[in-house]
Amino acid sequence: MKFLIALLGLLLATTITSAQYYDSVSFASADWKGKKIDRKAKLYRYHFNNKNLFKANLHISYVLVKRSRRHQFHIAAEPQKLRTVSDYAGEVRPLAAINGNFFDVKNGGSVDFTKVQGKVINLNRKESNEKPDFHQKAAVVIGANGVPEIKKWDGLVNWEEWLKEPDVMLNGPLLIFNRQDETLDSVSFNTARHPRTCMGVTKKGHVIMLVVDGRNANSQGMNLFELTKVMRWLGCVSAINFDGGGSSALWVKGEGIVNYPTDNRKWDHKGERKVANILYFK
Question: Where are the domains of the chain?
Answer without folding.
Answer: 1-30, 32-281
